[in-house]
Amino acid sequence: MYESSVKIRVRYSETDQMGYVYYGNYAAYYEVARVESLRNLGFAYKELEMQGVMMPVLENSTKFHRPARYDELLTIKVKIVSRPAVRIIFHYEIYNEENKLINTGETILAFVNMHSGRPCRPPQVMQDLFDPYFNG
Amino acid sequence: MYESSVKIRVRYSETDQMGYVYYGNYAAYYEVARVESLRNLGFAYKELEMQGVMMPVLENSTKFHRPARYDELLTIKVKIVSRPAVRIIFHYEIYNEENKLINTGETILAFVNMHSGRPCRPPQVMQDLFDPYFNG
Amino acid sequence: MYESSVKIRVRYSETDQMGYVYYGNYAAYYEVARVESLRNLGFAYKELEMQGVMMPVLENSTKFHRPARYDELLTIKVKIVSRPAVRIIFHYEIYNEENKLINTGETILAFVNMHSGRPCRPPQVMQDLFDPYFNG
Amino acid sequence: MYESSVKIRVRYSETDQMGYVYYGNYAAYYEVARVESLRNLGFAYKELEMQGVMMPVLENSTKFHRPARYDELLTIKVKIVSRPAVRIIFHYEIYNEENKLINTGETILAFVNMHSGRPCRPPQVMQDLFDPYFNG
Fold first, then answer.
1. How far is the C-alpha of D135 from the C-alpha of B92, rounded, in Å?
2. Cβ-count burial of D120 within 10 angstroms (0-12 exposed, 13-18 middle, 19+ buried)?
3. Which residues have CB under 8 Å from B20's CB, separation 6+?
4. Chain C nearest-CA residue for B49
5. Which of C12, C16, C25, C70 is the best substitution to test chain A (most A C-beta atoms within 10 A)?
């Protein structure tokens, strides 16, 4: 299993008139969490696209336990439980500044070769970086 | 069962560098679909908040079957299958201009009294409007 | 001079915790207004990009006279005062449902050849469509 | 004069199909820059709203010199040139990772008492924090 943790501060633009973070903005938080967790691993998502591989989202689901509010510094815990193959699954838990769980979610993405449009395996360099976390 | 249909044209701001609608923007499409389907029924969501009731989202899930592209006129079919009580569940199917299914999703929302912060039933006027669709 | 008028309904996602449309969302409204005003003229912006021409924004400015609120049906009046050449300037006036002026703005865009990255003139078909409005 | 500097990493959600940061997203960057520059000064914007003062935007303008791209770590230099009274003016310069100037802008905001809806002066604590930068 690979785990990582990312902090995001809520922007004013992300609130709505209920005074909470708009429910649609969590998907962007998840994406930042994915990208930063890969960067923590040593891999830049940007490089992936430069190598002709993209990662379209297949499924995304979210449970909203408590609202997030403006200016809160949220902590997103990201987990990858099973070894990434043609698909990769990210699990998220978001905690507020009082360390209360406010949001849980999950995203399934595919690796797709941009030129052929076909599913593919993660690049070897990425597989090598994941290797120590999914052995045995 | 209550069914309704809503059209949304993809904005440039909603695309990302993959050339598709960013996956996080479907939640806003769903929200427009909910609001317009209620308006088609005869109910303005705005009135609900003015009456002191809000509808926070509890759960949201999405499957991405095909990408949506800039300027496409999407058709969102919205269904409410079971009679709304303290919760209401919306199901969505999004079709592109070639009538291909590109996206399916589901949102569970609560009715909450803004003053007490407690779950509540939908306002009577809303229940009356739903009544013909959930009888028998 | 070419004038056109476009209607946009404020989405919940576009409000912020002040209860107004977030100031950053007017740029997306302007873009919808530009695209729809060109469509009213007979030209699809999408076609432009397919022909290898893009229109990056050079300058944008906005004055916020009154707030816009959730669910309001806004009317955006769009004007092009001078004949588009390598640049095109759009002027906007946004009115709320009570016909009060809430927002004025202006955007300057360039026509750029995607392949060379160089400024270019609008495609001939677009120039022909503009012609009747800028003669004499 | 008060100056501050803020870093923002471009999110995937902020790009558009041209492959650049969507022009409408700079307003949110400016807002983050304002909030963080005030935090660097010792003042939380959140506190302002809690004290019943809000800061609606009156005017905003932007010049786009070069595109910003996905994952770039942008540096926003924020300046307040004249002592804030019932209005405050922020100037921005955004630099990319190669230290090239990509964007300049300016925002004029008012201080407004939420209860009366009338313009007001900044809270005393904020005036005191600004004092050393605008003396003489």
1. 60
2. middle
3. A56, B67, B68, B69, D17
4. C70
5. C16
* d(C-alpha C72, C-alpha C29), whole Å: 13
The whole-angstrom separation of Cα A121 and Cα A86 is 5
Region C2-131: CATH code: 3.10.129.10
- What's the token pair of residue B39? 């308006």
Nearest to A13 among D28, D44, D45 (CB): D28
Chain A adjacent subunits, 3+ CB pairs under 8 A: B, C, D
**For C35-93, what is each residue's pLDDT tens digit?**
999 999 999 999 898 889 999 999 999 999 999 999 999 999 999 999 999 999 999 99
D112 in Cβ contact with D58 (< 8 Å)? no
Find out whether A60 and A96 touch, Cβ atoms under 8 Å.
Answer: no
Task: Name every residue in A having a CB less than 8 A away from some CB of B.
Answer: 17-18, 20, 23-28, 31, 49, 54, 56-64, 67
According to DSSP, residue C108 is labeled E
Distance of CA D121 to the CA centre of its chain: 18
3-class SS of residue C63 = strand
- Taking only the tens place, the pLDDT of each residue in D39-53 is 999 999 998 988 899
- Chains in contact with B, counting 3 or more C-beta pairs less than 8 Å apart as contact: A, C, D
Query: What is the b/e burial string over C45-62, where b = at least 16 CB atoms within 10 angstroms of the residue's CB?
Result: bbebbeeebbbebbbbbb
Tell me D111's DSSP state.
Answer: -
Q: The CATH number of B2-133 is which of 3.30.1850.10, 3.60.150.10, 3.10.129.10, 3.40.50.300? A: 3.10.129.10
Contact (CB<8Å) D12/A35: yes
With CA atoms as reference, the chain B residue closest to C25 would be: B13
Q: Which residue of D has its CA nearest to C114?
A: D18
Q: What is the pLDDT of residues B40-74, one digit of tens each?
A: 999 999 989 888 999 999 999 999 999 999 999 99
